[in-house]
Specification:
Length: about 240
């Protein structure tokens, strides 16, 4: 983050071990918290500084205060772990974000996430949104979008790739041929950040979920960005052919 945008980690405050233990105690113990989430808490669990992951707060202080409020019934705490409290705005409360602890990833390090108002989750009367597959996907996607793509004020170039997984695979192979490489923040099947340091460029491939898959591109130099966009545009028909 500091390499892409100096000063972007200013204001990070970690959660204390006492806070992490207290949060875990509500859900069956510290080790119940997904490992990726525990690592997040140990780096910026009390404050993410000037940038936010959600429309609300991920601060562990707010989460503990919310859990200690005994005035209302909770969703099943053995299954659902709230990691973001939706903010209040003029349209009413934004939905909260939860881990579904019953649906861990295959390596056990992460879990499915869902976005829904707590009352609706408790009563099961609404379908949850799933804007990201896992917490890792949320982190890596927003890290690139909010940090690396904010090199300049204008929006990154965007290519709609449709809903077929093979379209994403073809775009990934094209980017590798252009000299892009995966970054230190990792990849998944649904969120793939790549970087080309020689071109001063970053790319983000998002696999199809509820929306079409897409490719976003950004280069520090306008001429380089224009060349990359032209190359991808020239190959787009090949990428999305049935």
């Amino acid at each position: 983050m500091e390499r892409w945008k100096p000063g972007s980690t200013r204001g990070f405050r970690p959660a204390s071990m006492t806070q992490i233990e207290a949060l875990g105690a509500f859900h069956g113990g510290r080790d119940v918290l997904p490992r990726v989430y525990r690592e997040f808490l140990s780096v910026m669990g009390d404050s993410t500084g000037e940038w936010r992951l959600t429309r609300g707060t991920t601060s562990i202080s707010a989460l503990l205060e919310d859990l200690q409020n005994r005035d209302h019934e909770r969703p099943n705490l053995q299954r659902y772990l709230k990691f973001a409290v939706g903010e209040d705005d003029y349209n009413g409360r934004q939905p909260d974000d939860f881990f579904d602890l019953a649906r861990p990833t295959s390596d056990g390090a992460d879990a499915d996430i869902l976005r829904i108002h707590e009352e609706r989750l408790k009563h099961g009367d609404a379908e949850a949104e799933r804007p990201f597959s896992t917490f890792s996907d949320l982190l890596r996607t927003l890290l690139v979008v909010k940090i690396a793509f904010q090199i300049r004020d204008k929006s990154p170039r965007y290519f709609d790739l449709g809903r077929r997984p093979e379209f994403i695979e073809r775009a990934y192979e094209l980017l590798l041929r252009l000299g892009f490489e995966t970054t230190e923040i990792g990849i998944s099947l649904s969120s793939i950040p790549l970087e080309n340091s020689r071109r001063g460029a970053i790319a983000l491939l998002l696999g199809p979920t509820d929306l079409d898959g897409c490719l976003r591109l950004r280069a520090q130099d306008d001429d380089e960005e224009r060349r990359l966009v032209e190359i991808v545009a020239d190959h787009r028909a090949e990428l999305v052919k049935p």
